[in-house]
Amino acid sequence: MKEMDRRTFIKWSATAAGAAVMPLWIEKVLANPTEAAKWQQFKGETVKVLTENTPPSLGIKAASGQFTKLTGMKAEFTLDAMDALKEKLFLDLRGGSPEYHVNYAQPRPIGCVVCDYWEPVNKFIDINNGKSKMADLPDVPAIDTKDPDGLRKAYLPKHFDSGCVYYDRSKLYGLPYDTAQGIMFFRKDIFAKYGPKYSDKTGKPFKLSVDTTWDDFYQMCLFLKKNCKEVDAPLGLHYAQNWPIASEWASFLTGFGVEKEGFAEIKDYFAGQRDPGPVFSRKEDYEKGLQVLEYLKKLLGVMHPDVMTWGWTGLGTAYATGKLAVMRNCGEFCPYIEDPKASVAAGKTGYEVVPKGPSGINAYEIGAAGLSIPKALPLKEQKKAWLFIMWATGPKAQWEAFTKFYGTPVRTSNLEEARAKGWLKPDSKFRKAQHLMVQETELKDHLPGFNTGPKIPTYSEYLDIVGGELSKWVAGRTPTPKKCLDTMIERVNKLHGH
Amino acid sequence: MSDQSQSAAQPILAAPPASRSLSLYRRVVENTPWYVWWLAPAVIILAGITLFPFFWMIYMSFMKVRLAPGLSDLFVGWDNWARMFDDPSIYQGWWLQFQYVGVSMVLQMGLGLGLALMLNQTKGGSVLVMIFMIPMMVAPVVVGHLFNLLLNSSYGLYAWILNTLGIYSKGSLLSNPDTALWTIVAMDTWEWTPLIILILLAGLKSVPQDTVEASHVDGSNPIQVFFNVTLPYLAPSLLIAFLLRFMDCMRFIDKILITTRGGPAEATKTLPIYLYFKTFREFNISMGATIGFTLLIAIIVCAMIATNILLAEKGGEDHA
Question: Chains A, B: CB contacts under 8 A, how many?
C-alpha cells in the first residue's frame, strides 16, 4: 500500500471535514436565507391583484416595475369601479377557489362583509412589531421591530383600525394601503373676489378654516349663489344613491354629535360588531338624526342639481371643469385637480379642514383601505400575496406611487420626507401634496371627526336601505324627515332582527 | 319429442318479451316523423338548459343558499316568499317596471308602426332602413355610456343643446328623479324602435297589393284601407314584434346599471335592477331566485296571452 504524503493527507482531511460540515451549512442557509432570497423565492411567478380603479391603485400599478425588480414576480392588476370590483371580489371569494391573490380591502362596503374569507396576517407576522413569524419570509419593511408598537407607528393614525380590523381586535386582516380622506377644496380666486364684498355686508370673514361652522359656510354659499357667475353652483357633495349619500350622512351625523351612526350598542366603533343592536334607539340621537336630514336637504339648495348622480369621481370632474366654487371630496383628488391639463382649477385651489358641525366636531369621511389575502389560497400562493402586500404598503412603493403618479402615502415616513422637501406648505410649488397637509391636521387635531361608518356584516343591505331612503328624502319624495328616519329605522332594525 | 313440439309452439302462443319490445321500438321508429328525430337533440339540449335552471330557481326560492364551500343549503320553506311580499321595494319595483315597460312599448310600437308605414311607401326606403338600423347594432351598454356622456352637464352635447335652447337647465336629465326613468325610456326607444320597423316592414310586404288597390277602387280612404286591409294582414307581425320587445323590456337592466344604478331617489330601481342588487350586491341568492321566479311567471303569462291572441287570429284566418 502506498504511503500517503502529508500534503495529500491534509487535502483529504479538509475535503472530508468540508463534506461533513456542508449539510449543516446548507441547512443553516436554507433555514436563514438572505433577505434578497426571501423576496426572490417565487421568481418568475405572477401575483394577481384585484383592486379599485382609483388614483392610489393606479399609482401602485404604475410603480409595480419596482416589485418585479425586487421579487422577480410579475404583478397582474385588475382594476374596477367599486360596484364591479365588489361583485367580482365577492364571487371570487365565495366560490371557494379564489383566482386573485390580493384583494382590495375597503372596510366598507367590502371588508365588513367578507372578512371571514380572508386570512389574518397574524399567520405571517407579529401584529405588534411586524416581525416575520416564518423564517422564509422577510419582516415588514422599514419597521422598528424592537418597538412593541412599531407596526402601527409606521402607518398613519387609525389606518390599521379602519382598514385591517374587523370584529376581533386580536386579528389583523392586512396592512394599510391607501387613504381617501374628506377635505375641503375651494377656489381661491373666487374667494378672493367675493370675500371682501361678503365681509363688508355681513361683517364676517369669508374664509374656510378649522373654526368655520357649517352654518357659517352655508351663508357663504348663499352669497355665492346670488352673486358669483363664474361657477354653476357654490357647492358640491356626493349625493348619488347608495354609498355616496350614505357616506355624507355618516359624516354629518358625526358632525352633529351622533356617534357610531346611531348604533349606540356598538362597543368598539373601529372593530365593528356582528350584531349592532337597534339603530337610533337613543332619543338624543334620533333628534339629531332629524336635524341632519333637514340639513342635507337645506344644503341641496346651494348645490349643483347633478349632485344626485355624483359619486366621488363625478364630483371631482365637476370641480375640475369649473362648475363649483367648493367641494368636499377625498384628498386623493388633489393631484388630478392640480393637473393643468385636466383641470381648470389647477393652481387656483385652496385646501382646508372640513367645517365644524353643531357638536364642535370637524367630521370627515375616511376610506382607509388595506390589502388582504384570501383564506382559501394554498400557503405558497398566500406567501406570494403577502410579499406583494409588504411591498405595496412599504415606504418605497408608496413614495414612488405618490411622487410620480397619484398615490396616497400611508407611511408616516413618507409624510416626513415630503415635509423635509418643503411640500407640506400652502405655497409649495409641488401642488400634488397639498391635501396631505390638511389631512395631517385633521388626523392630528380632529381625530373625533374620523368617520368610517359602522362595520357590520349586513353593510350591503344597510347601504341599500339608508342610501335609498336618504336619496328619496333629499329629492322630495318623502314628505317629512320624521317619515324618512322612521322608515329607515324600521327597515334597518328589521334587517338586524330588532 | 314432446319437448320439441312444446318449444316450437311457444312463439305462436306468446311472443317473448324481447321480441315485443323490439316490435314496439320498430313501431315508434316507423311511426315517428323524420323531422322529430332531426329536432330531438336540439329539443333535449334546450330543455336541459331551460328546464333545469327553471326548477333550480324554484328550489333556491325555498332554501337559504350558502355559497361558501362546505356549507350546504338550508331549507327555509316559504320564508323567502314571505319576506318578498313584506318588502316595500318589491312593490315599488313592480310599479316602476309597469311604467317603464308600458311607456316603452307604446312608444316603440307606435313609432315603429308609423315609420314602417312611411318607409314602405318611400322610394329608396331600403337606404333609410339601413340608416335606421344603426342604433340597433350598438351594444346596450355602449348606448348607456354614450347617453351618459351626451347628457353630462359638464361636457355633454345634448345637455348643452337643451340648456342653450332653454328647454332644460337643471343639469343632467339623468340626475333628476322626475326625468331619469323617461330618459332611459327614450334611450331604449331610440335603440330598439328599428327592430319593430324591421319586423313590420317584413309584415307589410305580405299585404296583397291587389286587395289594397281594390279597396281604393271601392272608394276607401287611406285610413279605411289601413284599418280594413293592412292592419289585419299586419296583426301577426305586430304581435311578434310586441312579444319580442315586451320580453326584452321586462328583463332589461344594462342601460340603468350604466347610467343611474337605480337612482336618483330610487326613481329607476325597477324590479330587474332590484333583483340584480339582491343577488350580486347583497349575495342573497335565495331572494334573487324568488324575485326572479315571479318576474319569469309574469313574462310567461303575458307571452302566453299574446301568443293565444296570435294563434286565435291565425285560426280565424285559416277558418275564413
Answer: 89
Give the residues across from B233 on adjacent strands. none
Q: Measure CA B112 to chain center.
A: 17
Angle subtended at Cα A167 by Cα A161 and Cα A171, rounded to the nearest 5 degrees: 70
* Tens-place pLDDT, residues A366-397: 889 999 999 999 999 999 999 999 999 999 99
Q: How far is CA B85 from the centre of its chain?
A: 25
pLDDT for position B294? 95
Asked if the C-beta of A88 comes within 8 angstroms of chain B's C-beta atoms, the answer is: no
Residues of chain B with C-beta less than 8 angstroms from the C-beta of A474: 265
pLDDT exceeds 80 at position B195: yes
Rounded to the nearest angstrom, the minimum Cα separation between A74 and chain B is 29
Q: Any idea which fold B113-319 has?
A: MetI-like fold (1.10.3720)
Note the pLDDT tens digit of each residue in A18-69: 777 777 766 665 666 788 999 999 999 999 999 998 888 999 999 999 999 9
Using only C-alpha atoms, what is the Rg of chain B? 28
The per-residue pLDDT for B206 is 86
Q: Where are the alpha helices (DSSP H) in chain B?
A: 2-13, 17-31, 34-61, 79-85, 88-120, 125-137, 140-151, 157-164, 180-205, 209-217, 222-225, 231-251, 254-259, 271-276, 285-319
The domain locations on chain B are 113-319
Contacts of B153 in chain A (CB under 8 A): 232, 304-306, 323
Query: Which pLDDT band, with edges at 50, 70 and 90, does B4 fall under?
Result: very low
Which of A87, A304, A471 faces B264 most closely, judged by CB atoms?
Answer: A471
Contact (Cβ atoms closer than 8 angstroms) between residue A388 and residue A48? no
Q: Which residues of B touch A240 (CB under 8 A)?
A: 261, 263-264
Could you say which of A97, A308, A461 has the minimum Cβ distance to residue B264?
A308
Which of A94, A321, A471 minimises the CB distance to B155? Answer: A321
A-chain CB neighbours of B168 within 8 Å are: none
Can you tell me the mean pLDDT for B275-302?
93
Cβ-proximal residues to B93 (8 Å cutoff; 6+ apart), any chain: B269, B270, B271, B273, B274
Residue B248 confidence (pLDDT): 92
pLDDT of residue A19: 77
What is the number of other CB atoms lying within 10 angstroms of the CB of residue A113? 26
Q: What is the ipTM of this complex?
A: 0.80
Check: pTM over 0.90? Answer yes or no: no
Residue B260 CA to chain centroid, in angstroms?
Answer: 23
Determine the 3-state secondary structure of B63 from DSSP. strand
- Cell 407596526 appears where? A151
> Which residue of chain B is at minimal alpha-carbon distance from A231?
B154
Q: Is A90 on the interface with B (CB under 8 A)?
A: yes
Q: How far is CA A297 from the centre of its chain?
A: 27
Contact call for residues A292 and A148 (beta carbons, < 8 A): no
Residue B2, pLDDT > 50, answer no
Please tell me the predicted confidence (pLDDT) of residue B193.
96
Spell out the domains of chain A, with CATH numbers in brackets: 40-180+367-420 (3.40.190.10), 182-366+452-495 (3.40.190.10)
